[in-house]
Design a protein that fits this description.
Elements (H helix, E strand, L loop, with lengths): L2 E4 L1 E4 L2 E9 L16 H24 L8 H14 L1 H4 L1 H9 L3 H17 L4 H5 L1 H15 L16 E5 L4 H7 L6 E4 L7 H8 L4 E3 L4 H4 L5 E5 L4 E4 L3 H22 L15 E6 L5 H6 L5 E5 L13 H14 L4 E5 L27 H6 L1 H14 L4 E6 L5 H20 L9 E6 L2 H5 L1 H5 L4 E4 L1 H9 L17 H17 L2 E4 L7 H10 L3 E4 L1 H12 L3 H13 L3 H11 L2
Parallel strand pairs: 3-4, 4-5, 5-6, 9-10, 9-16, 10-11, 11-12, 12-13, 13-14, 14-15
Antiparallel strand pairs: 1-8, 2-6, 3-7, 7-8
Helix pairs in contact: 1-2, 1-7, 2-7, 4-5, 5-7, 8-9, 13-15, 15-16, 21-22, 21-23, 23-24
This protein binds phosphoenolpyruvate (PEP) and magnesium ion (MG).
Phosphoenolpyruvate (PEP) binds next to strand 10 and helix 19.
Length: 575
């Protein structure tokens, strides 16, 4: 059956490929009675699913990426052990027989009993193994439901797979980064959730907030993902398919033309140079940043080094990762942001102990100050990497002067310990603060007095100004970068920093969105940091912009009373 779904567009481009359903299977388990004559067959079905998952895990062991965290192998081994433990492999079989119920139900009942026991364990390490049991059960459920696990089926080069999921965590996305997928579509999620940001960093089309896609699409359905418009076409007819194939080749042509701008300086028509930096999540992303001709890294989201693993990366492991990026950038600035976990970035992909309201909880710098050992380890690793190039240290989610004082004290401590051990670091390293909480934007002198540069994180600034959870598709329509309050905070931060001669960048998704390039230039922004995939398109827009015209128009936008009017003004600005 041919149908169309609408969601929120995440990343530019069109992809055509076959659906690969990735299930949050636990949500889908129904209970039904099995006739006595079919009990043996149901048990066989359960055994076959276990065998399939055994095979998947064996295969995973053989294909661990070379750059995967060291813990990854141990984690797969542990899952194999859990799978073979009689509590999961035998007890559900007995339950199917005793209760005459379907295998999925028996498995989930057994899992819930086990998970309850884990909750009662005092040892935090053992208590956390609960998530492993859940993940193994998920795999078996997927096998029972006839859905393959996250290891993608083999495809030929021209046959692309499109991941269709109810929801994906940023930790899931990091694992998906290892495979070649043509696109991603999810039922949940907002366009600036970290999952969406990662999809964008892969440079492939994606749509979030499709609501029922996961239920309506079947494995191997032919899909067209229009990541520009947020339109998903399922089982298109030949005329529609032909039209999209045409648009796809046009976009590819445009992309190729843009590549010619790689080494062209980003200068406005009236001769003002603009700095274009890249955002990265993993050290290997630096390649894409260099290919796009980035003049620096404006945001290295280091938390992704900490995901999908049991223990935190050691100081040496972190040092190697940071040094690799610094060396690859050959003297260009590398802005390393300290650990920003919490909210939608749980370390293991589960949101288990995140507190009642994770986005307002122990996130980012709050977490780091509560865990000084973890923070100092990271600070030492960053400092040690700073001797290999030009490192800038960036601190997320600051709101209070005492947070800055505390972090500076810990930084002094980290420096002193390195000096004592005769380990070199750049003594002139600059420290910057992210402006992503309205309180920070409204109390800038507090930050400017103590720090060397600012970077505006518009993703969180919008979330916290408008009280909209950036990951929640139910309120995604209220997430509005053009809300007058947001624009005032952004413009005020840029202009206050400019007046004081302090370097200021925007590193949230607004910086890579062509709709806002000219507006931000008009506000006075001279440093943009974005995903490498967006960089050349933004450069092209800059090359065709004249600051002389933009500044008065941007000032008029700031006087606009509501975002509907602003939208019209921005359209004119971009025409
Ligand atoms: C932001 O909030 O705009 C930002 C750049 O940080 P992150 O998206 O990682 O929260
Ligand atoms: Mg942020």
């Amino acid at each position: 059956m041919n149908f169309v779904l609408h969601g929120s567009p995440v990343s530019a481009g069109i992809t055509i490929g076959y659906a690969h359903l990735v299930s949050s299977a636990r949500l889908e388990v129904a209970h039904f009675e099995i006739p006595a004559a079919s009990i043996d067959a149901e048990i066989e079905r359960f055994d076959a699913a276990l065998e399939l998952v055994r095979g998947e895990l064996r295969e995973l062991t053989g294909h661990i990426p070379v750059d995967a965290p060291a813990e990854f192998g141990a984690f797969v081994d542990m899952h194999r052990m859990i799978l073979d433990d009689s509590t999961l492999s035998e007890v559900p079989r007995a339950l199917i027989r005793a209760e005459q119920c379907n295998a999925e139900w028996a498995l989930v009942r057994q899992m819930e009993g086990l998970v309850g026991q884990f909750d009662a364990i005092e040892d935090p390490y053992l208590r956390e193994r609960k998530a492993d049991v859940q993940q193994v059960v998920e795999r078996v459920l997927k096998a029972l439901l006839g859905h393959p696990g996250p290891t993608p089926p083999q495809t030929s080069d021209e046959q692309k797979l499109i991941v269709v999921a109810h929801d994906l965590s940023p930790a899931d996305m990091i694992l998906f980064k290892q495979h070649e997928f043509g696109g991603f579509v999810t039922d949940l999620g907002g366009v600036t959730s970290h999952t969406a940001i990662l999809a964008r960093s892969l440079g492939i089309p994606a749509i979030v907030g499709l609501h029922l896609a996961r239920h309506m699409i079947r494995e191997n359905d032919l899909l067209i993902v229009d990541g520009l418009q947020g339109v998903l076409i399922v089982a298109p007819d030949p005329a529609v398919l032909g039209e999209y194939q045409l648009r796809q080749s046009q976009l590819e042509l445009d992309r190729q033309k843009l590549r010619r701008l790689r080494t062209t300086p980003a200068t406005t028509l009236d001769g003002t140079p603009i700095e274009l930096y890249a955002n990265i999540e993993l050290p290997q992303d630096v390649e894409a940043a260099r290919e796009a001709g980035a003049q620096g890294i404006g945001l290295f989201r280091t938390e992704f080094l900490f995901m999908n693993r049991r223990v935190m990366p050691s100081e040496d492991e972190q040092f190697e990762a940071y040094r690799a990026v610094v060396a690859a950038m050959r003297g260009l600035p590398v802005t390393i942001r300290t650990l920003d976990i919490g909210a939608d970035k749980a370390l293991d992909g589960a949101s288990g102990d995140a507190g009642p309201n994770p986005a307002l909880g122990l996130r980012a710098i709050r977490y780091c100050l509560a865990e000084p050992q973890i923070f100092i380890t990271q600070l030492r690793a960053i400092l040690r990497a700073s001797q290999f190039g030009r490192v800038r240290l960036l601190i997320p989610m600051l709101a209070h002067a005492h947070e800055i004082e505390q972090l500076l004290a810990l930084l002094r401590q980290a420096k002193a310990s390195l000096a004592e051990a005769h380990l070199p670091y750049d003594r002139g390293i600059e420290i910057g603060g992210m402006v992503e909480v309205p309180a920070a934007a409204l109390a800038l002198p507090m930050f400017m007095r103590r720090l060397n540069f600012l970077s505006i994180g518009t993703n969180d600034l919008i979330q916290y100004t408008l009280a909209i959870d950036r990951t929640d598709d139910a309120v995604a329509h209220l997430y509005d970068p053009l809300h007058p309050a947001v624009l005032h905070l952004v413009a005020h931060t840029i202009q206050t920093a400019n007046r004081a001669g302090m370097s200021v960048a925007v590193c949230g998704e607004m910086a890579g969105d062509l709709a806002f390039t000219r507006l931000l230039l008009g506000f006075g922004l001279r440093n943009f940091s974005m995903h490498p995939a967006q960089l050349l398109a933004v450069k092209e827009r800059i090359l065709r912009s004249s600051l002389g015209e933009l500044a008065p128009l941007a000032a008029r936008v700031l006087r606009s009373p509501d975002s509907a009017k602003t939208r019209g003004m921005i359209a004119k600005l971009n025409s």
